[in-house]
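Morning F.,

Quick status update on the modeling queue. The single chain you submitted on Monday has been processed. Sequence for confirmation:
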Amino acid sequence: MPVKDSNGTLLAEGDSVTVIKDLKVKGGSSDLKRGTTIKKIRLIDDDEEAIECRVDGSTLVLKTCFLKKA
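Structure tokens below.
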């Protein structure tokens, strides 16, 4: 199943994405601010469109509706 960002652009393994909205991180001390660039994303097999990434040493799963391809 193809994974698309908020604009409908196809995402691939290893792409870079930008956060389009401030996001609260559950269990984390800091939030993800709008404009944050995340590199080397991993696609995961999930019913919802989501990606896995590392930010500040933590692994996060983010919904693609909050991301756009960088």
